[in-house]
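re: that chain from earlier
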Amino acid sequence: MAELKPARVFEQFARINQIPRPSKHEEQMIAYLKEFGRKRGLETLVDETGNVIIRKPASKGYEQRAVTVLQSHMDMVCDKLVDVDFDFHKDAIQTYVEGDWLHAKGTTLGADDGIGVAIELALLDSDDLEHGPIECVFTRDEETGLTGAFGMKAGFMTGDYLINLDSEDEGQIFVSCAGGINTTATFRFEREKAPERHFFIEASLKGLNGGHSGDDIEKKRANAIKLMARFLYMQQEKLDLRLAQWNSGKMHNAIPRDGKIVFAVPADRKEQVRADWNVFTSEVEDEFHVTDKNMVWNMESAEAQTVMPKTVSVGLIRAVQAMDNGVLAMCQDEALASMVETSSNVASVQSSEGEVVVVTSQRSNVMSNLRNMADSVKAVFQLAGADVVQNDGYPAWKMNPNSKLVKVTVDAYRKLFGKEPQVKGIHAGLECGLFSEKYPHLDMVSFGPTLRCVHTPDERLSIPTVQMVWDHLLEILKNIPAKQ
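^ sequence. v structure.
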């Protein structure tokens, strides 16, 4: 990364990628940020949740400008290829450049939102830039529940304007985001022996694109859990299928890319099951021939083992088959008509000795529809006999039609690049929703460099767009209005 531009940003990104920072395990990153501020003589505070704020005074001539908050999250999604030996709690991310893109070797890159952190640190580390007073805020545990933003108390930030650096498409300025709820269903049981003369089969799928369950949900990508459910449901309707294992998906906010099931069927039907599998996989490959071209399917015999009770197996398969998944509604507001309004995603299924846990997420920028969608998913699992819990969720961020910051941001982009940016909403959740509740006066925007395949080992960062975002941010800071 030594030769990448802007050098001061990529220098910081290289440093923080040496620091393990899985969600809920950001202690080393918090310590690094505290020391970073202390060494530069900047006011640095850590709240009781673990969020860090570093304040930098205005440069000469900008003392009367309003305080601007720059905000990013310090944690990262940790995912890797199955054959890669890597410990996210100890090992440094290994990066490489391919064309105009920065990649990681077999793991997530951490640019979501490490590049936002790096931009903030580069600004704090520079003494030749023009800006009013700034507060650089680094929240923890954004990826697994927004707990840093949830735990932040009013008064921690003092700014009038906030720029969130956690978006993934350069040239797009986000002014609204969806709210979200996680719905988790647990099936509990005592295992039993499979019926006599049953044959065990292991089936697996890998190679799907997956992606972010908010930002990528409208791209019609295959969901490994839903595909497995489809096959299991069809077989269950025809024969005495007994499910033993079902494991797929890792993160609550990702579209699952792979999965494995183990099940038993009457021995005299095993060849028909294999024939059905071949037909099913061929049809699915054709169904997703544009979005998921690299599916890898496998079916083989498996060792005999205990199985779930039939009532549990039937209920689980029916529930996953029945639950809504994907885009459910588009926004009705004309200004945001191209944005997904409401969606649902089944994110993971994990079986163990005595239970199966299914994690799903629902999103909407209309809070009443969010509750309705979450309750619909809850009801499906309740009908199947599961214990269902939902988290408190997080609120949507509503567009401010009179935003001064949006005007400054758009004008700066137009001046620098001679074209109009897109002003839009995002279906993913941003911490701006929570900030809007605790700091209702805040005028906010969100933007960032281009990222692709976030939350997967294919995550990559567009190098030229980092320079564009850096230049854009500096131009905005020079034009922040005077404090009132």
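The mean pLDDT is 95.
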